[in-house]
Amino acid sequence: MAVHKIAVIGGDGIGPEVIDQAVRAAEVAARKHDGAELKWNHLPWSTAYYKQHGRMLPEDGWEQLKPYDAILFGAVGDPSVPDKITVHELLLPMRRKFDQYVNLRPAYLFAGVPCPLVGKKPGEIDMLVYRENTEGEYAPVGGNLYPGTENQIAIQTGVFTWKGCERILRAAFEAAQKRPRKKLTSITKSNAQVYGLGLWDDVFNTVRKDYPDVDSSSLLVDAAAMDFVRKPEVFDVVVASNLFGDILTDLSAAVTGSIGLASSANINPTKKFPSMFEPVHGSAPDIAGQGKANPLAAVLSAALMLDHLGLAKSAAAVRKAVATVLAEGRVKTPDLAGTHTTTDMGNAVVEAVG
Ligand code: ATP
Ligand code: MG
């Protein structure tokens, strides 16, 4: 039986609660549908760990993580400690240290989930957003002149490299090729940001020649924001820079129902380093410890992990189980206007998988 080693970092707030349910669903699916065993190792790295040890993870923490096949991550963040420590010591460095340059965020409108847009049918919104995860507008390059004075000048530099643009664009094109609609939209703003997004467009126009079977086009980010609301059904694979991808995926999550359903993957496609799978939402301290969190974002993130591990049948089984539970509508957490608990929802998914 194939064995896959997974590091589990539940983290803070609702993180551990939702991750527990994701672990259960993935384990049942892997065994039943792919005959694979998932070996979990729970790591206690969190705000509580920080308060005890003065750091979010041990000194050799990154080395400890390297041998794993994947990392399943809940959320970090606690009102008692600044994000500058929690998020900036654990979550953000992981994406860079492990070169997880693909941030994949699917948006799918499930049956049984209320959509804020009028007249959308289940399955009609079905897109994969590929967000660049290591450079662009979020490059830590810049500084201040005359800080603390009325003359202060802040400079924030976007860093776009040919290599960085090419690898995210190629990952998106590869994904588009495997989808029935074979459609790709590249998000840009090169009319205003002529250097960075100008390079992005140049690389797009070069790379697209290698994928003549994909119907690809370029769209300005402001027009894209409008179309994500007006006609999200036209999008299939969308590829965007770090900042634009960040903003557009909050929008795509909103138009497909609840933040409690939005999943994500931070992938190193070379498999040189482990990839990390996490719900889009944060630690939600306002509902932590009350059994109110919807675990489906974490469960769907675990399905992305199963895909990455090559367990495609298990991944499909988890997604189908989630779709069935939502469509039946018997079990609903408060974010879906129900009264069921995190565990109730986890139980329903495990039952549907099995
Ligand atoms: P971060 O800064 O870590 O991205 P945040 O503080 O902006 O996170 P969240 O922690 O995601 O935001 O919480 C935003 C809101 O969404 C809160 O009201 C929270 O209760 C709700 N929420 C987040 N995740 C879930 C979930 N899985 N189920 C139900 N409600 C959720
Ligand atoms: Mg927060």
TrEMBL record:
Protein origin, superkingdom: Bacteria
Tagged with keyword Cytoplasm: no
GO MF term list: D-malate dehydrogenase (decarboxylating) (NAD+) activity; magnesium ion binding; NAD binding
Matches recorded under Pfam families: Iso_dh (PF00180)
Cofactor: Mn(2+); Mg(2+)
EC number from the UniProt entry: 1.1.1.83
Keyword Transmembrane helix: no
Start and end residues of each Isopropylmalate dehydrogenase-like domain: 5-349
Annotated catalysed reactions: (R)-malate + NAD(+) = pyruvate + CO2 + NADH
Class of this enzyme: oxidoreductase
Keywords assigned: Manganese, Metal-binding, NAD, Oxidoreductase
Protein family (similarity comment): Belongs to the isocitrate and isopropylmalate dehydrogenases family.
PANTHER family registered for this protein in UniProt: D-MALATE DEHYDROGENASE [DECARBOXYLATING]
Protein name: D-malate dehydrogenase (decarboxylating)
Native species: Gemmata massiliana
